[in-house]
C-alpha cells in the first residue's frame, strides 16, 4: 500500500487542497445568497467559477489521477511526477489569475471559466497534466486477478482520453459558426463534460467495491462483477458515435448527450448499489455492519436521489444544482471514505474521525439537496444571488435555511477533514509531546476567509457599473440572450436548417420555458425534421400556455396529419381558422388542407362501410 501511495499520494494531496479551497470559496457563495450581506453579482459569479472548478474539475480529476498512479506502478513514476508538476502549477495559476489579469466570469455548464488568458492557460496546464496521468493509467492493463477498482481505473482512463479528444475537436476543429448559429463555450464543452461524468461514475463504482468488500463477500457469486463494470463503460461507445455523427452545437448533438446521460450513466451503478445495500442490510441484521458501510449506503442513496431529482428538472431553476450536488456529493463521499481508509493504512491513522467527518459531509449534502430541490419547485433561478431574486415567504426562507444549514454542515466537515489531514502530514507528533495548533488553525482559517472575501470583492469581475438594481441587470442580460437566440432560430428555420434552429429554440426554452412562441417555432423545426410526435407535444404546450396562439393550432394540425390522426388534424385546423385573423396568409392553405383531409376521411369511412 505504501508503494502504491507514493505514486498517487501527491495527486491526493492536490485533490484535498482543491477541495478545501473550494469550500472556502463556497463560503462566499453562501454569504452572497444571504439577505443580511450585500455582495454583488460579480463577486458571487467569480467565487462560483473558482468554487466549481476546484470542487468539480480539480478535485475529481486529481483524485482520478491519483488512482491511475496507484494502478500504474513504479515504472510510470517519472512520468507521473512530471504530470503532477504541470497540474499543480496550473492550479496555482488559476488561483492567482484574478490578481494577475481580471476577466469576466463565463458560467458555462460543467466548466465555468474566467475569460482571461492567465486563467485559461492555468486550466490548460492542469488538463495536460491529467491527460498524461490518464495515459499512464490506460497503459496499466489490469491483470485477471486485479481487484475491481483497478478495472474501473483502467476503464475510466480510456473514457477520459475519449473526453479529451472530444474537447480538442470541439475547441480547435469544430467550426466557429454552426449553420449560422455561433458556437458558445457551453456548446464546445457539452460532449466532453457529459463523457467525463461517465469516468467519474466508473471511479465511484470502484470506490464502492473497495468500501463494500465485506458486503460483496456475502453475495452468492462475484462472477457478475467484472461484466457489470465493463457494461458501465459501454455508453462511451455511444458518446464516440455522437461526437462523430452529429455537428457540435446542433440540437441532435446536445439532446443526444443529454439522453445518453439520462438513460446510460446510472443503470450499472444502480445495480451495483442495490447489491451493496442488500449486503449492508444483511450485515446490519447480523450486527457486523460498520460506520464505513453506513457512509457507503449514504453515498449510494445520494447518487440515487441526485438521479431522481435530475429526471424531474424543468427549466433553469435550483433543481439543477440539487441534481448535481446529489450525484457529485455521492462521488465525493465515496472518495472521502476511500481516502480515510488509505490514511488508516499508513502511520497517519485518525481513528473514528476519519469516518465521522465524511458522514457529517454526507448528511449535510442531503439537507442541501433537499433545500435546493424545494427552492427549485418555487421557481428560484440558479446562478443568482438573493439580491437578484424577487421572492419571499415562509417556503422560500425555509428552503433557504435547509440548504444553508446543509451547506454549512458539509463545508465544515470538508474543512475539518482537509485540515486534519494537513495537520497529520505537516505536524506529525514528536517524541515527548505535541503542540496544540488549534488556535493557529482557527486564526489562519479566519484570515483566509476574510482576506479571500476582500480579494473577491476587489476583483469583482462582471459586476454592474451603471448603478441599476442587480435584478434589472441580470434580467436585461437574460433578455438579450433570449432575443439573440430566438432571432438566430428564426433565420435557421426560414433557411431550412432545422437541426440548428431546434438547438437555438432549445436554448431559448432553457431560459424562458413558458415562452409560447419558442414552443411553436421548435415545433415547426421538428416538422421539418419529420419528428411529428415531438412536434405535436411542442404545439400542445404552446396552446396550453397561450390559448389564442393561432399558429400553434396550425402546426398541431400538420403534426397530427403526419401521425395519421385525420380527425384530430381537422379539429386543430378548424380551431386555427377560428382564431386566425382574416388577413392571415396561411388561411387559404389551411382551408385547402381542411377540404382535402375531410374528403380523405370521407373516402376512408366510405370504404369501411362497404
Strand neighbour order, sheet with most strands: 1-2
CATH superfamily of the domain at 470-605: Tetratricopeptide repeat domain
Which class do the helix and strand fractions yield? mainly alpha
Work out the strand percent.
under 5%
State the order of secondary-structure elements, H for helix, E for strand: HHHEEHHEEHHHHHHHHHHHHHHHHHH
Task: Give start-end ranges of low-pLDDT stretches.
Answer: 453-474
The averaged pLDDT comes out at: 81
Structure characterization notes:
The protein is mostly helical. Among the domains are: 144-273, no CATH class; 470-605, Serine Threonine Protein Phosphatase 5, Tetratricopeptide repeat. It has 23 helices and 4 strands. A two-stranded antiparallel ribbon has the order 1-2. The chain is elongated and about 85 Å long.
Task: Provide the fold topology.
Layout: H1 2-32, H2 41-72, H3 77-100, E1 105-106, E2 113-114, H4 117-139, H5 148-173, E3 177-178, E4 181-182, H6 185-211, H7 213-217, H8 225-232, H9 235-245, H10 251-264, H11 267-285, H12 291-311, H13 319-344, H14 353-377, H15 394-426, H16 438-459, H17 470-494, H18 498-511, H19 516-528, H20 532-545, H21 550-562, H22 566-579, H23 587-609
Antiparallel strand pairs: 1-2, 3-4
Helix pairs in contact: 1-2, 1-3, 1-15, 1-16, 2-3, 2-4, 2-5, 2-16, 3-4, 4-5, 5-6, 5-8, 6-10, 6-11, 6-13, 8-11, 9-10, 11-12, 12-13, 12-14, 13-14, 14-15, 17-18, 17-19, 18-19, 19-20, 19-21, 20-21, 21-22, 22-23
Amino acid at each position: 500500500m505504501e508503494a502504491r501511495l507514493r505514486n498517487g499520494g501527491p495527486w491526493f494531496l492536490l485533490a484535498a487542497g482543491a477541495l478545501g479551497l473550494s469550500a472556502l470559496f463556497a463560503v462566499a457563495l453562501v454569504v452572497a445568497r444571504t439577505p443580511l450581506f450585500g455582495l454583488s453579482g460579480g463577486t458571487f459569479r467569480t467565487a462560483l467559477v473558482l468554487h466549481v472548478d476546484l470542487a468539480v474539475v480539480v478535485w475529481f480529476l486529481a483524485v482520478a489521477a491519483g488512482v491511475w498512479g496507484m494502478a500504474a506502478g513504479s515504472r510510470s513514476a517519472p512520468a507521473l511526477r512530471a504530470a503532477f508538476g504541470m497540474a499543480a502549477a496550473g492550479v496555482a495559476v488559476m488561483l492567482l489569475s484574478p490578481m494577475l489579469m481580471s476577466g469576466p466570469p463565463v458560467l458555462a455548464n460543467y466548466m465555468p471559466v474566467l475569460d482571461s488568458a492567465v486563467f485559461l492557460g492555468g486550466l490548460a496546464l492542469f488538463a495536460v497534466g491529467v491527460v498524461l496521468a490518464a495515459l499512464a493509467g490506460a497503459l496499466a492493463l489490469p491483470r485477471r486477478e486485479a481487484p475491481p477498482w483497478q478495472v474501473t481505473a483502467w476503464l475510466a482512463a480510456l473514457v477520459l482520453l475519449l473526453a479529451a479528444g472530444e474537447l480538442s475537436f470541439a475547441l480547435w476543429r469544430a467550426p466557429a459558426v454552426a449553420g449560422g448559429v455561433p458556437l458558445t463555450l457551453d456548446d464546445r464543452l457539452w460532449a466532453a463534460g457529459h463523457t467525463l461524468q461517465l469516468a467519474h461514475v466508473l471511479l465511484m463504482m470502484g470506490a464502492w467495491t473497495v468500501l463494500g468488500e465485506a458486503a460483496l463477500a456475502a453475495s452468492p457469486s462475484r462472477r457478475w462483477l467484472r461484466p457489470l463494470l465493463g457494461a458501465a463503460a459501454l455508453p462511451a461507445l455511444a458518446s464516440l458515435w455522437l461526437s462523430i455523427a452529429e455537428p457540435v452545437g446542433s440540437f441532435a448533438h446536445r439532446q443526444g448527450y443529454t439522453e445518453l446521460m439520462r438513460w446510460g450513466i446510472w443503470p450499472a451503478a444502480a445495480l451495483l448499489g442495490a447489491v451493496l445495500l442488500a449486503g449492508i442490510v444483511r450485515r446490519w441484521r447480523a450486527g457486523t455492519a460498520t460506520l464505513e458501510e453506513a457512509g457507503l449506503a449514504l453515498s449510494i442513496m445520494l447518487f440515487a436521489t441526485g438521479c431522481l431529482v435530475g429526471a424531474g428538472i424543468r427549466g433553469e431553476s435550483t433543481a439543477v444544482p440539487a441534481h448535481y450536488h446529489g450525484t457529485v456529493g455521492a462521488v465525493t463521499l465515496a472518495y472521502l471514505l476511500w481516502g480515510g481508509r488509505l490514511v488508516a493504512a499508513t502511520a497517519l491513522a485518525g481513528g473514528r474521525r476519519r469516518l465521522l467527518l465524511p458522514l457529517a459531509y454526507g448528511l449535510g449534502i442531503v439537507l442541501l439537496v433537499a433545500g435546493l430541490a424545494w427552492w427549485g419547485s418555487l421557481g428560484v433561478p440558479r446562478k443568482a444571488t438573493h439580491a437578484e431574486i424577487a421572492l419571499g415567504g415562509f417556503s422560500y426562507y425555509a428552503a433557504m435555511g435547509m440548504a444553508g444549514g446543509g451547506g454549512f454542515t458539509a463545508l465544515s466537515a470538508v474543512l475539518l477533514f482537509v485540515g486534519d489531514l494537513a495537520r497529520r502530514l505537516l505536524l506529525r507528533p514528536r517524541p515527548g509531546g505535541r503542540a496544540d495548533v488549534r488556535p493557529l488553525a482557527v486564526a489562519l482559517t479566519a484570515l483566509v476567509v476574510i482576506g479571500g472575501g476582500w480579494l473577491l470583492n476587489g476583483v469583482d469581475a462582471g459586476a454592474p457599473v451603471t448603478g441599476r438594481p442587480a435584478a434589472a441587470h441580470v434580467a436585461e442580460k437574460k433578455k438579450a440572450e433570449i432575443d439573440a437566440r430566438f432571432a438566430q432560430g428564426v433565420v435557421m428555420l426560414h433557411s431550412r436548417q432545422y437541426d440548428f434552429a431546434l438547438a437555438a429554440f432549445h436554448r431559448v426554452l432553457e431560459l424562458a420555458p413558458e415562452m409560447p412562441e419558442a414552443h411553436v417555432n421548435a415545433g415547426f423545426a421538428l416538422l421539418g425534421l419529420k419528428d411529428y410526435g415531438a412536434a405535436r407535444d411542442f404545439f400542445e404546450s404552446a396552446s396550453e400556455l397561450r390559448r389564442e396562439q393561432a399558429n400553434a393550432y396550425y402546426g398541431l394540425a400538420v403534426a397530427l396529419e403526419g401521425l395519421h390522426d385525420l380527425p384530430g388534424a381537422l379539429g386543430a385546423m378548424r380551431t386555427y381558422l377560428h382564431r386566425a385573423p382574416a388577413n392571415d396568409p396561411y388561411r387559404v392553405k389551411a382551408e385547402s388542407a381542411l377540404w382535402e383531409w375531410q374528403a380523405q376521411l370521407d373516402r376512408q369511412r366510405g370504404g369501411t362501410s362497404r
